[in-house]
Amino acid sequence: MEALDFVQRIVNFDRLMEGENRDSGDPDDIEHWCAVYAEMIRFKEGLLGQARQEIKKVPDMRKELLGNDIPFLQAELQRLRRGLAFWEARRTERKKRR
Question: Is residue 11 part of a domain?
Answer without folding.
Answer: no
